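Exercise: predict the fold of this chain.
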Amino acid sequence: METERPNPDALLAEVNAAATRARRGRLKIFFGASAGVGKTYAMLIAAREQMRAGTDVVIGLLETHGRAETAALVEDLPQLPPLMLDVQGTPVKEFDLDAALARRPTLLLVDELAHTNAPGARHPKRWQDVDELLAAGIDVYTTLNVQHIESLNDVVGQITGVRVNETLPDTFFESADEVELIDLPPDELLGRLRAGKVYVPQQVERALANFFQKGNLIALREMALRQTADRVDAQMREYRDAKSIAPVWAAGERIVVGIGPDHHGEQRVRAAKRLADAIDAPWHAVYVETPRSLRLPQAERNRILGYLRLAEQLGAKTSVLSGSSVADELIAFALTNNATKLLLGPPPKWGLFRWLVGSVVDEVTARLHGVDLQIIGNANGVPGQRGFADQLARTKAHLGIDESKVRSRKQRWPGYAAAAGVCAVATALAWALFGRFEATNLVMVYLLGVLGVAYRYGRGPAVATSVLSVALFDFLFVPPYYSFAVSDSQYLLTFGVMLVVGLVISNLTASVRLQARVAQHRQLRTEALYTMTRELSRASSQDDVVAIAVRHVSTVFEAQAVVLLQGATGTIAHPTAPGIYGSFHGADLGIARWVHANRVAAGLGTHTLTGADALYLPLAAAHQVVGVLAVLPARSERLNIPEQRHLLETFAGQIASALERVQLASERALLARKSEAESVRNSLLNAISHDLRTPLAVLVGASSSLTESPESLSDAARRELSATIHDEAQRMTVLVNNLLDMARLESGSAPLSRQWSSLEELVGSVLNRLKAALADHPVHVALPPDLPLLSVDPVLIEQVLANLLENAAKYTPTGTPIDVSANSTSEGVVVEVADRGPGFPPGDEAKLFDKFYRVRTEAAQRGVGLGLAICKAIVAAHGGTITATNRMGGGAVFRFVLPAGTPPAVEAEHDSLPLAQVAR
């Protein structure tokens, strides 16, 4: 093959990828079939070798699992302290990502890559921590078992009966710079297990009876070996691409079989399957679509689809390639995929035809090197007409095709009528030019007409135009005129050249036109897929995803469509909102449930339940089958076209991914809410356990003293104990009221009773109520006289002011002033409560208003931490905002803004009264 010029875009992408790899750290995974094969031990050995070579090696997090030999390798390696997280009152050790980024070693050891982090960690998964380390340029050694790879999760579950919840995306595993397989035969692993070198003795018997059965270990070992081999094969192909190595490296067998519209395709597909099974090799079935094949009858195109479906059912990967040459595309595909064997049908047996036209087999034989070419001969009797008819009938029966429905609906006569009209116009123009130009120059006029007809109407009308043009030119412009006789033999050459040129032009123009139409159709398909994918990526709910999917499938495939999802009972059911979930109301639930259970398409055009009018496709996502897509086309043959079927399957894959994404997002949101509720519950219990125990202990002690020995107490002591009981009971009442107020505000069950109120009166009322609490703090009030009235709930706003003032009194030294001020701005009325206390730590400004949050300072007082949260909820209910900042010169400032409205007009009789009296 000729050496092609490198693609500049590909080179630029490779340069950018190399630059990205250079900035990232390197990831090495110590990979094994199960626990106990020695992954962590091998990782520590490799790390110690790196440390002896001068590399800065640090252990981020590593579990020895009580293994003495592993613990011995850890002793002199530096380790980061773990991050301690509180999970439901239990301390949990996790990897400290921030400490690792701050320490920034050259090489970091992080055990158990697929681990799920505890709530409170930055990332939910440890592999995401590792990804951030790599992005920071830190090299990482880590460990992984084969059962944790996402794509193998269900297979491992079927083999072992144990479904692993902690999984790693395949893409992250594939992105590793190096994977080292740590292999151990099953018998040796079982011996280590029985010797107590894998688990503690009390867990050994349970492990042997469940996961660590010899059959399970053999299967897992094979999966690990295959996964490693596949990765090595992918690395080899990447290296060949990077080095532009064209010859095939036969490191592993890989088969490609070429199929076409002839009736021998099924034989070649089955032969390829037998060969692949015999040598245990992956195989591809490839069909090359050329401009010529696009004009094939629908029956032959349906036959091709049948071959592709058969290959898929037999385990092949199928591909539909496009190009002008079958041989070129097959050779390029074989080299790109590092194929070692190419299977083709026999070349034509007619010697002259084969010599003139050539054959794919001859061209491939001459140009393809390093790949074994095998010719699959035709079975006896198959080439006959009876064999052809039988094969075609079987294909139609499998696909559920009615011959009456596949005939072309396109009318041909307008093209030939246009050909006659164009010849008439060309003749009229040539007649006008006759006598001024040589007769041979008039040929160009007719050739121009041939070109126009070929571009507009295709090959048939263009050929007719060429023949008719030659006849008209001979009849009208070549002596003897008005006769087809030719007096000058030179014109015979002119006629021949004119006819050949016309036929060539018509053929080339029609091919270009056909390829342009094909390119346009492919662009439309790609654009439709892109548009749907883009809209699906923006959808945030299941109803949005389904509505988008049904709209696009119905439009692109001219069909009725419906997405069937699992109902409340867990089985596939009709949607409850047909207007959203689709326009196809007659979907067969029995077929849909079978498709959902077996993850296989059924119905129209398939080999299962072929009598159905609709096609049912499983919506298979990465983790589960999320539903079924039912499609009822207006013309059933449209879904039998290979391109359309593959496009529909691609649509189904994108829809499934989008549905799974919104489901996972909903589950994450639910888990987040549960986690938050659990955190709030724990915070509440931690807060009130102290604040209830203390007053209760005081109440019990004081009341028992009054009850058990009242005669021994003086009057002053009894009064003091009574006052103590009253104060502590009052404190408990405030605590309970705060909890109830917070619950009502969050549930929205506390409606606002708005009144036009004066801020001056609200402040005065609160100060009068808090005289005792504020006795040790001078309060300075600065309210301008022109403040507008506020439409607020006066009781709730007084509670905000009271909470802020009490908070200032609690957290400031005795004798320090408290300032209350307000002013009117474009945003509304701004109220400030400022003190001269210690303030609060920087960064706590937003946390101050969280429920149960209390500043840890020496001046901190008892409390649950609900006062400021209640203030925030009340202000937010009024449409305002509240913030906190440290005050210049020391202290804190709490500032809240309330929207200012337009108060109602004041009656005339009140015009002479002060504003405060009007407000009252």
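Check your answer against the key: The chain has 29 helices and 24 strands.
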